[in-house]
Amino acid sequence: MIVVLSGLRSMLEDVLAEQRVPHITLIPANAVADYRPAGDEFPRKVVADWEDYNALLSAAAQLEPMGVTNIVTMDETAVRAAAFLRGQLGVPGQNLHDAVAFTDKAIMKDRLRQAGIPVAGHRVVHGIDNVRKAAAEVGWPIVIKPRMGFGALNTYFVEGEAQFDELLAAGAFEPETRLPGAVRSTKVTVGLEDEYGFMVEEGIDVAHEYHCELLVFNGEVLYALPGRCAVPVLKGAGGTYGSALLEEGRTRDAIAALAGRAASALALETGFVHCELLEDRSGRLLVGELGCRPGGAMIPHMLKLQHGVDVPAIQASLARGVEPRIDWKSSGSVVALRGVPADAGRVIDVTGVEEVRSMPGVVDVVQILKTGDTSLGSVGTANFAGFVFCEGRTSGEASERAAAAAARWQVVVEPTTSH
Fold first, then answer.
1. What CATH number did the domain enclosing 292 receive?
2. For 126-130, what is the mean pLDDT?
3. Containing domain of residue 216, as a range?
4. How many CB atoms lie within 10 A of CB 38?
5. Is residue 112 part of a domain?
6. Any idea which of 110-119, 306-315, 377-386 has the lowest mean pLDDT?
């Protein structure tokens, strides 16, 4: 029996159901209202949340008689819980020690530095009143971020004390309440005053931000596919988010090599890794952080359009303990994506999708918000009105086309609340 920890997205269990593979899905209580799997044929079980280890012990006791063969998740919020259950049930796979290193950014960066991998300096801070002391040690500007998190949630690049005071007065470091229940089932959105502490990190003057999507099977990297962000994530004013996969060359090779070293330093044997990397103004390449999951914000769809890589199908193979088959798609073009932001409020008008599809280079459009829907506004790299995908001869051309198509896609919102 395969156990899937889910809640944020049901892609994996949907593929397993389609393939008629027996499995049971665990869902945190906060996610039940939003959980929308394709079918109801296979059983599901609700647990309190991914940080309630007594509830997970109870779940392990109920799962043990079922003969569990694998425990898998595509959600970063559930990585630790999956590792805990493996330990309780004696199931092979990532252990809790390594799962913590993939989800606690302070421990992650300590391990990476010990392995000789360049990362930004940091301090662990308990209490917002101690930020200035930590900033004096690492030097302004700084980045303030949760120890456990993703998608730039509750993460801020702070130039100096004056800006820090402005953010503090605006309540920027309070718990995030706008995101789905599955995200609120961990410490990801608790705010920076939680007893767990948070990070004050050296603020890198970023020239370019990259990401690299890796697939590892039994210690071997099956693919490493780098992309460049349209703008560095923490400089993405107005919800600007986008990426373009890189053409072959020295930059792509250097990013793939460093991401592979980082995944190895965190002892990943089998699974996906989403690695974020920063290039500073001097050309130095650093590892930002890693997630033990596929990339979010429609990156898997971009991989499928350019390379034919089917992330959910690959994860289903990993869940069965089978080396995944990758049917590579050959194309001379490069694919880029761009998110379409929307302010918070009720959507009253949206540009027609067919109009966006007619723009040069557009190969696909994914619409999320329609007229009458409620927009929560952009939160980190989450909550976009839609995504547009374009191809070009180079990553630069593809990115420019994606930006133009996203600009054509207008979302008119009637404000209902302010944040």
1. 3.30.470.20
2. 87
3. 206-330
4. 12
5. no
6. 377-386
